[in-house]
Every structure is written in C-alpha cells, then in structure tokens.
C-alpha cells in the first residue's frame, strides 16, 4: 500500500517562547481535498511550513509521501502557494514560468498547464503589472509546474474577486479528479464547506475537529430562526433562544428548541415574514469549537 500524502506524528513547533503547534497528529490520504480551518495563531501556517521543510520542528515527525519533507520537495512531489509568496520583478510571466519548468525533469506540459490555470493571456505581461488575482493564478501555475502529487495552499483566494474564486476552485476540483492531493488553509469557510472532502479545525496548535463538513456542522447543537420583523422588539427571552441579533429589519435567533421558539413567537403575534430555519453553518461550528478550546 502506498504511503499517505501526509503523516504527522507528535508535531511540535515553537517560535521563541510561543507554542505554535502542540503535539499534532494528522494523516491525509492520497487524493483527498482537505481544508485546514481555525483563527489566526491556530498553527495552520506553521504546520504547512513544517510540511515544506521550511522550519525544523521542536519535536515529532513529518512524512510527505513517505519521505522527509526536504527530500519530497527536492523530488518535485510538493507544490505550494504560500500566503506571502512572491514573484521576481522585472520579468515577464512566460519567462518566470519557463525558468521554473526547466528545473523539473518531467514538467507539466506547457499548453495544458496554461489552460488549467487560466493564464493564457498573461504570458507576455510584466510580473509587476499583474493584479492580485492574476498573481495568484501565476503562483498556482508555478506550484503545479512539476506535476506534484501534493499541493499545499495557504489562503489561496485572498486577493481574488468572486469570479476568480469560482474559477480557482473549479481548477482545484479538476486537479482532485486527476488524483492530486489538495490541502488548503483558508478563512473563507463557505469555500471549505463547498470544496473540501474533509475539514480539520485547529485551535491553539491542536486539532479540535476532523471529518466531513456535514459531520463537523452536526456536532454543534441548535438551529437558527431568521425572519423579518419591523420595529425594535427584542426576542432574547423567547423560549429556547440562546442568542438574538438584529441587522436592520432582519432578526436571527439561535435556539435549542425550534418548535418552542416558533410557538411562542406566533402566540405573541409576530408575523414571521421571510421565515427561515437552518442548522448550524460551518462558521457557527468552527466558532463554537474554537471558543471551547480556549
């Protein structure tokens, strides 16, 4: 049986006196699309850096496709888009891409790579003239130049507009269909919910939840009742309600007993226009899990 794409055991990372990753155990199989979620300081970027061999762990082991991180990177097994990745100035996109592809024994065929990453119109453009979203697409092309079986992404869509994000994740799904393992850290939880096969929630350097998005969401009790109510009425004393927010005329009630809440509202004559009842979102779940880990 081939080794997992990633196998972390007891990974511990310190930055001076700060414990960034705390005895982390994590295994990611080949072909999975996995989202790393959590607040700033949760340890996501430090974990990615350890996987890439950019820092030496204080303790624990890291295996990338059965190899040490440095060996895997040198063999072209890993492609990465880091949050603060840069491009050389005073060069054209095509020149940079050519330089990177030449460093691999078996680079991704140019025409397919350009089409996959959507940079066909950018090859002749100066790197310094790229927009934020265009830079991200070029960085993705560079990360994929060696046809890596593992792709690591740190906040990959942070500079993209809505259209760019949609195109980016279409590309990620195509890569997953080809068998590429995709691991990405993001604060855009709706993207993780829509794209990832599995979400790993981190807090204080530890994993606090790991599984399909639906399973992580279902672990959070309660639902939200949302409706339109004019005026300044308050609803925090309604049976079952654990929290109430109002934005303009829209009221959102977090409740542990939907039926009791709705019965009480109707008995009080609340019109409940535009009524919506939903379970916990991934954002609700992550906030609950992270808050409980502090």
Could you walk me through the main structural features you see in this protein, from its secondary elements to its overall organization?
With about 290 residues, the chain is of the alpha/beta class. It has 2 domains: about 5-215, P-loop containing nucleotide triphosphate hydrolases (Rossmann fold); about 220-280. The protein has 10 helices and 13 strands. The chain has helices at about 45-50, 70-75, 95-100, 110-115, 130-145, 160-175, 190-195, 215-220, 260-265, 280-294; strands spanning about 5-15, 20-30, 35, 60-65, 80, 150-155, 180-185, 200-205, 205-210, 225-230, 240-245, 250-255, 275-280. Strands 5-6-7-3-8-9 form a 6-stranded mixed beta sheet, sandwiched between helices. A 4-stranded antiparallel beta sheet has the order 11-12-10-13, covered by helices on one side. Strands 2-1-4 form a 3-stranded antiparallel beta sheet, with helices on one face. A hairpin with a 2-residue loop joins strand 8 and strand 9. It is globular, with a radius of gyration of 23 Å. The chain starts with 5 loop residues before the first strand and ends with a helix. About 35% of the residues are buried. The model has no long low-confidence stretch (mean pLDDT about 90).
Radius of gyration: 23 Å
CATH topology of the largest domain: Rossmann fold
The main sheet comes to: 6 strands, mixed
Tally of DSSP helical segments: 10
Say how many strands there are. 13
Task: Please identify which CATH superfamily of the largest domain we are dealing with.
Answer: P-loop containing nucleotide triphosphate hydrolases
- The CATH architecture of the largest domain is 3-Layer(aba) Sandwich
Gross geometry: globular
Helix content estimate: 25-40%
SSE order, one letter for each helix or strand: EEEHEHEHHHEHEHEEHEEEHEH
Give unreliable regions as ranges: none
Q: Could you say which structural class the secondary elements and strand pairing correspond to?
A: alpha/beta
Q: What gap, in angstroms, lies between the N and C termini?
A: 39 Å
Keywords: Antibiotic resistance, ATP-binding, Nucleotide-binding, Transport
InterPro entries: AAA+_ATPase (IPR003593), ABC_transporter-like_ATP-bd (IPR003439), ABC_transporter-like_CS (IPR017871), ABC_transporter_ATP-binding (IPR050763), P-loop_NTPase (IPR027417)
GO biological process, one term: response to antibiotic
Main location: membrane
